[in-house]
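Reader question, answered in our methods column.
A reader sent in the components of a multi-part assembly and asked whether the whole thing could be modeled at once rather than chain by chain. We filled in our standard form and ran it. Here is what they sent:
COMPLEX SIZE: three components
ENTRIES:
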Amino acid sequence: MSDTTQQNPEEQQPQADPVFTLHMAAMREMQEPRDGIAPTPVSYIICCFLALLAGGWYMGYYGGEWTANGLSERPIAGIPPTAPPQDPMVLGKEVFGACIQCHQESGLGVAGTYPPLARSEYVLGDKRRLVAILLKGINGELVVDGKVYNSQMPAWEIREDEEIAAVLTYIRASWGNKADPVPISLVTAVRKETAGKGEWRSAALDEFAATAPAAPAAPATPAATETPAAAPVK
Amino acid sequence: MIAQPIPPVVIPEVEARIEVDGSSRPVIVLYWGTSLIWLTIASIAGLISSIKLHSPEFLGGMEWLTFGRIRAVHWDTAIYGFGGLAASGTLLWLQARLCQVRLPYRNLLLVGGVVFNIGLVLGTAGVLMGQSTGVETLEFPLWAMPLLVVPYVFIVIANFTMYFKKVTKHTYVSQWYLMAVTVWFPILVLSAEACTNLGAVDGVAQAIANWWYGHNVVGLFATPTGIAAAYYLIPKVIGKPIHSYHLSLLGFWSNAIFYNWAGTHHLTGGPLPAWTITLGVVGSLMMFIPVITIGINHHMTMLGSFHLLKTSPTLRFAVMGSMIYTLSSFQGSLEALRSHQEVTHFTHYTIGHVHFGMYGFFAPLMFAMMYYGMPRLMDQEWSSARLIRIHFWCTVVGMLIYVTAMCYAGIRQGLMMNDPSIPFLNIVRFTIPYLALRTLGGLILLTGTIAFLINFVRIITPHKYTWKTPTMLDTERDWKKLVELEKQSENGGTK
Amino acid sequence: MSRTFILAFGIFLTIASSITGLVIIPNWQFQALKPVVKLDGTRYPEVYFGDQARGREIYIDQGCIYCHTQQVRMKGYGADIRRGWGTRRSVPRDYLMDRPHQLGTQRMGPDLASIGARQPSVDWHAIHLYNPQLTSPGSIMPRFEYFFREVRSGEAAPADAIKVPQQSNGVTHIVPTDRGRALIAYLKRLNQSFPLPEANQ
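And here is the structure of the entire assembly that came back:
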């Protein structure tokens, strides 16, 4: 293998084997490798040292706090500026990513298990009831579009008001749904109203929807100029 | 040393070499031969897991073949089965040759090789039966580990014995790396097992220990063995000294110092203190120093001898390996950066990089070692040049398809994952064609492995008739022709 | 000192320094972390017990880690939080009870650090594990039908049977086996929504 010259390929007869013809391969090898002594250029050594310096600087600069809980490599300078409000349709689509596992990207749900959002009376109807479902989750039988569904929806109250309003606005205006947006103030109000409650059951939800919203409490805010919470959908 | 008539005076080095090779034959052939069987098993396991990713129904319903188990089997058999055995064979053979001493404790090493293989079989069976420990790269159940560790202790002892009995005065650079491997690997395995499966630490510290090990098993075991092989084979085949002793020294020590620290970049963004990740990033970035140094050293040695790549299979695999060492290390160093990890972490890009390193750098160097060593150990030539060519081109093409598909898909996948408006399942659907392409790449790699295996079986079985000159890549040697010649010679003999 | 000694000692020193720096010192730092006691007297994180502990073993032996991570990256680094995989970044304290760790490094499937908060429904988990295509069409997750007993049409479904949305091969309901129930219990327990102070960085 190690031969550097091209051999005439085709073959001779096998012959008697004195010990060294037996070891053809070992015989034709080059000498065991040796070390050359080409000097390393000084410029290369300097480059290596510069690299080391750069590494040391990086270590110091991004080292964080050197404690078990110093998780950020750079201390956060001051409070980050609050982000400008986002287009609810864009933000809503993003937040909806968490809903896909049951309600599906098509908004049609899974037949017999997870109710659809498209053309659902719960989505298009009373916004206050819709917000309440999202905040607290719902468990047990639920009739949507004439069909009975029985499963559990988690409470999403851990998400921001803005996100909840956005995702509801998004589902009310997708897959052929055409309903007005959900204002952030409504989410804030319903969150206050339902504080301390557990997940809904169908009956409790109907009862909640039937009661008038605590009218004077919520609209007392400047957001009263927005669509009133209980405004009927066309 | 052209195939001239045999020189009348036998120089001592050749004599020693023949004696040394004669002493190490059974051990090395056992280690290399079984390593190829494990490579085939690992490739098949990899292929099954790859197919399962684009057609999840494939072999579905069988618990022992579920993706999470066969995927673990793939990596463990590749790194311990192929990597462990091929590297140990290389280590023993090279050390014996470079020290010019007969291989000591041959029977012990033979038993060790068999026990190691039994350990691998048991460990694999354990994982398939659901006894995986759940710690990546250390999945083999604890009860299988002694069967892997004890034989390795024999190898360490044999290696040190040879080193202390060595006849040669000079310690060649390959020997440094081999000594380093035998010190590092047992410490690595034992301390990682202690930290993870034996529970010395838990939670996040265990994750760090896990990836400290996971990265170092490549960096302190596979890589040094690969570099040692390259340092040996390149000057040996072309017959020139290695370019610079000083660069060898610089490359060795910077590699030893920095590679250790790189592991935590596998957990970038995770719940780790920032300083541990930064250490990993710096360690990875500093790897530019040894990689460039070793790259220069190999390149300057090769300079002027590139035409030999046309004929010598050993050199071709060795040069491919050392070139991809440079490339994949560059890729790895850049990949460690936080800004790069933000996109490619958690994606197929990592998988592409691992295969670039393991199948582009480490495996070719082990193949080169075998292509060089087997004719010397067996006193027979490789039977077929065609099979060597198939092996080489399958390795190159399969590896390139695999790595390109995975790295491209990984970057796109990472960018899409960082855009929350794209639903997760759309990303999954996007990757499926690339996952299928990976299956194709894996299939080509497996084809090459099988070609090599056939050639290997042929060279270890005794034959009356063998080629009298080395099998070079540009010859038209084939199996059939050899068989014909064999028949002819038999007929000729009887007539 | 001979060269051999320098070689051997140097080699040993490199690995000893890195295991000290990367494993021993961080582990020593983590000793200060203790579970927090919540207002209702329970602790976070709590040890795994009963079904959760058994479920964790199943999670490990099925190799879920090769496709699913259990770590949420900080806000502004990747989109983990915006994807709803968690409400805050993961911190070391979340993993105090994890042995072996299951952080994972691949996301062929979504992150599971808080899957219990995102998806508390047992039925969903059962259907998804039984056949991922039913809840996530196009998923590449394998089916884990061996964790369920199938009830075909005509057979009487037990009280705890779960209705399958689309019937195939006449399977109308599935009943999780003990292992299936344990795995689901573990998945439901995965929840990092408890706000820890150190997560605000």
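What stands out: Chain B touches chain A through 87 residues (CB under 8 Å). The radius of gyration of chain B is 23 Å.
Send us your own complexes using the same form.
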